[in-house]
């Protein structure tokens, strides 16, 4: 049975050794998923640009949510979209897709989160899809406002397509204590984007992720100054996943085949225009067989 815990972030490069530095909290050794959310990177604020060449995905959805900066998304479906703060990009890989993400326009600070959602068996194969949602539901409470980018929160529902019960919210909190309603059958995570936040009585440093197990219908958040918090949650994901590099599957062999297809320029991934054939090559497979990710309670 899962229990509440705090996940500290670790710094990794995005898109290569000289890429934008990001702080990753999911997956962790202790906690591979929150609902179907299986990946959470927090980048910035930084003056370093985002420069991520075309790369593949299988078995997942990518969720890009910027606080500052503009990001140009191009993919193998022919999408070419500039993402602004307060807008959502949601890409569903299905059996295979590729995309790139680059800072756009005049140099400006970059700040945001990028997340992945593990797709269930009934949707992890099949066609890829892309959604750009510029108008998302907003709701206000006493001393807080929320933008609902995935799922439902406080009576408002995003139009973003999801395949398991999920929630994703940007919360803007004024100083003080705030009590918020939660879906009791969901597990939840709270990321303090730009300051410390006390979650259900537990202080959580900026950049760390506080996990709450299912069973809570309400939570108290406390901040000393105006603070942005990202809330994610969902019903516990029942399917075992094997996750490596940019792929999610169910077996080692499935991941190995996805990698081999990318290196062979297989049609399943298509191509992304505008990069003169440049792509991010797949790293070597590990010397051990990949196993499903499990929780460590």
From TrEMBL:
Cofactor requirements of the protein: Fe cation
Write the record's keywords in alphabetical order, separated by commas: Iron, Metal-binding
Binding residue positions for Fe cation: 55, 57, 99, 101
According to the UniProt entry, its GO molecular function terms are: metal ion binding
Superkingdom of the organism of origin? Bacteria
Database matches in Pfam families: Pirin, Pirin_C
Q: Which InterPro entries does the annotation name?
A: Pirin, Pirin_C_dom, Pirin_N_dom, RmlC-like_jellyroll, RmlC_Cupin_sf
Entry's cofactor comment: Binds 1 Fe cation per subunit.
Q: Which Gene3D superfamilies match?
A: Jelly Rolls
Question: Is Lipoprotein set as a keyword in this record?
Answer: no
Q: Does the keyword Metal-binding apply?
A: yes
Q: Which residues form the Pirin C-terminal domain?
A: 169-264
- Pirin N-terminal domain ranges (all copies): 20-117
Q: What is the similarity comment for this entry?
A: Belongs to the pirin family.
Q: What is this protein called?
A: Pirin
Could you tell me which species this protein originates from? Aeromicrobium flavum
